[in-house]
Model the fold of this input.
Amino acid sequence: MKNKLHETYRILLNNFGRQHWWPAKSKKERKFEICVGAILTQNTSWKNAEKAIENLRKANALSKEPIKNFPEKKIASLIKPAGYYNQKARKLKAFAGFLEKNSFEKLEKMPISKARGMLLKVHGIGRETADSMLLYALNKPIFVVDAYTKRIFERIFNIKFKDYDEWQDFFSSSLGRDTLLFNEYHALIVALGKDVCRNKPLCGKCPMQNRCNAKF
DNA sequence: CGCCAGGGCCTCA
DNA sequence: TGAGGCCATGGC
Done:
């Protein structure tokens, strides 16, 4: 399976090109933005999350202190384009509060599993969001599993796992611990999932159509 | 117009 | 532990 996963990556990269999501190195302010983005894009298109981020930026609210100090209603109104804005306002506040006692520097020095466990205790941070933060903000080699990942690999290889952690083990046991690879692979999976391997798939334009086990 | 986005929480068996 | 309801705007 190791070779197949690497081959799939190579095909997706050739077909879609580099996605330049979040860069490997970034400053503290940038890390915060990445984490905010990870929360705002929950079950939401990145375009809508981006609008919410720009609203926060224009209001000088895209950093820890204002997120912590502004009224929750105010945050909610700024992030309206991202949807679920009341819930997400609360989540952003919870994350800003978490950072009061836990700096990015501290998190980066911890073992991954410990940092992950701490993030998972924060309201609004589930496994995918925690892993996105670990991978894209803290540059930890952890594979992000989302709805696209499950759908795509269920179809291509006709495999299925019960829960999130089993999906993650499937990838990391085959691919090792390569932060840059995981960064780009997940972005490519999203590109394939949203434009081609949709709920109603467009198999005719899929770069994996020769190797895919799904029949439609 | 209906479908669905780069999920997670809560409740209830 | 798993299924199901809920949250909500905007692009297509």
About this structure: Chain A has a mean pLDDT of 95. Residues 85-101 of chain A form the longest helix (17 residues). Residues 18 and 160 of chain A are 28 Å apart (CA to CA).
